[in-house]
Amino acid sequence: KSTTTGDLIISNGDFRVSGTASFPNVPNIYVGEGGSFTNASTKPSAFAGCTNLTVLGKMACTGDATPFGDATMALTLGSAAEFSMPEGTVLTVCTLNVGGVAMPDEVYGDGGISLAQIKSGTVVVRSGNLYVDCETGDDENDGIAARPFKTIKAATAIARRGYTIHVAPGTYGELEGARKYNDKATSLCRVIIPEG
After folding, report:
1. What confidence score (pLDDT) does residue 180 get?
2. What is the rounded CA–CA span in Å between residue 92 and residue 123?
3. Angle CA(127)–CA(158)–CA(170) in degrees, nearest 5?
4. How far apart are CA 156 and CA 163, in angstroms?
5. Any idea what DSSP says for residue 176?
6. d(CA 123, CA 77)
7. 3-state secondary structure of 153
8. Are strands 101-102 and 95-98 parallel, antiparallel or unpaired?
9. Structure letter (DSSP) for residue 147
10. By C-alpha distance, which of 189, 151, 154 is closest to 172?
11. Around 127, how many Cα atoms within 13 Å sit in the side-chain half-sphere?
12. For 137-196, how does the pLDDT look when each residue is reduced to its tens digit (9 = 90+)?
């Protein structure tokens, strides 16, 4: 386990993390156009403290399927970036910027909209808004507007401090109350319930 604090900057050349190495105190990772970063660490949440990941060159996560844990992270991919994760891996980010363009809340990569920069794995952009629709939703969805949850309970289970849960009109069961407290939140999230 590294006690390294501060940013990890790979401007040029190759950098590889392997074994059970972890860098939980690194908030910003930057991979320049001439840089290549391979995270082969088998340690879950090896980079759990990362809040900003910028990849202009190449980055491959080949070790544990959850290298960033459940950190709230902003992801920036350059126009020529190559970003890959193990098949079936889902990375949820609060923002995604690709080639200077802010991408909307959506699912990208293997599980959604194809982006040339995401070579494998799935990136879900969830900017703090979760959506629930008891008629068209599914609790296996991501909770974004295009793929809402079915129950308020599913949304509150992942909501963090400052999130807003948008609830579509419909009939929700008695156990669907929005009072569940999520351990990851330091206060309750805001729930918007339509009139009627």
Report:
1. 43
2. 6
3. 85
4. 9
5. G
6. 12
7. helix
8. antiparallel
9. B
10. 151
11. 9
12. 999 998 988 889 999 889 888 887 778 889 988 887 755 554 444 444 444 566 766 665
